[in-house]
Amino acid sequence: MLSYQHAFHAGNHADLLKHFVLTFVLNSLNKKDKAYTFFDSHSASGLYDLYDNRLIKTGEAQKGIQTLLQAKNPPQELDSYLNLIKEYSDKNLYPGSPEIERRLMRKQDFLILSELHPQEIENLRRNMNKPLFNNPNQPAIQIHNRNGWEMLKALTPPATKRGAILIDPSYEENQDYIDATNTICQINKKWSNGILMLWYPLLSHRESEIKAMLQTICDSAKSHNEHVEISNLQLQVYSKDDKDLPRLYGSGMLVINSPWMLEETASKVITYINSEISGQFQKEC
Description:
Layout: H1 13-29, E1 37-40, E2 47-49, H2 53-58, H3 60-63, H4 65-69, H5 79-89, E3 93-95, H6 97-104, E4 110-114, H7 118-128, E5 140-144, H8 148-155, E6 163-167, H9 174-190, E7 195-203, H10 207-224, E8 230-236, E9 248-256, H11 262-277
Parallel strand pairs: 1-4, 1-6, 4-5, 6-7
Antiparallel strand pairs: 2-3, 7-9, 8-9
Helix pairs in contact: 1-6, 1-11, 9-10
């Protein structure tokens, strides 16, 4: 949806889960020298100013990433993610998923980004041309000003065969649930070994749509490969038993062809994040 701007929400609790999983997947792909291709379907600007008035207005980064960076004794499973984020926060910046991707990928890899919003695509192009922190050998990057669903269907499977996809639409339109389901099912059918990551919100008024989306994707993946590894990870910063449960009470990451140890590692990380940031949230949305 073209009215959505991630600058209001960068570094919030949903980004913590999404970007931890993203970092884990990229590090897993980097364990082999062979090149891979990474697709980011809803890229947004890619890099954010922690002192942007929009972030200050919502306070979401303060309750999310800034609280986590100040937390004591984080588990070693968070080291890779937090060390990367600190590189940017020391300069009052927060990296979105495209920046994390180009920071961790190698010169032999390929990064394909898509963004439809007219202002966000200009911000994305500008940010992807900035010098990288601690990585002079960034991957080859393509930036598409087009519908992310169309981009994924047109460009997968990649020539490299190895690779992954991150999908994280705004979910402000009913069609996003349908498009996410149809796109992932189609891509998994033709690119059976691709790692497919879907971020989704936990919304009290959308539980039936979310459940149907996840169930359809999982059933489709298992119909192609009954032994497929699927991880469904959720970070709930509000208790579902709370009578004042807000509309957005957390988020999830569904991962098809989940890398080894993702689920076990994420379980420890989610438990720690919940213990450190849940108290920051008030009974309001």
